[in-house]
Amino acid sequence: MSLAAAFADIALSFSAAVGAPFVDANIITPGAATYDSGGDIATPANPTTRACKAQADEASEAMRGENGYADGDIRILILSASFTGSITTDDRVQITAGVYAGTYSVESIRRDPANIGFELRGRRG
């Protein structure tokens, strides 16, 4: 078992016992439309949704110092072992419970050195 998977198991066990801090969430990745020879959309884009576990909180001091920071941006931690694939700034994250429930665009992404999770700066909308 990897360190990321072991940490995810511990965090998820704790969350199950107390009901927080990691809640059900979704990573929504936009699809790509296909175009016909005339440049019109032949098939619209279909987004892909991946379930994950996330924790949301106020933005960190480091996030507040980033270019593009706006009041209302939040910090979202996602356990890397709770989903497959990666996350990009094209994705959106849907938090399903808690005071930060809602859908957020991904404004910035950081990884921790142990590869346990993703730290995102999210913006509602």
Automatic annotation (TrEMBL):
It comes from the Bacteria. Keywords: Signal. Residues 1-19 form the signal peptide. The keyword Signal applies. The keyword Signal applies. This is Uncharacterized protein.
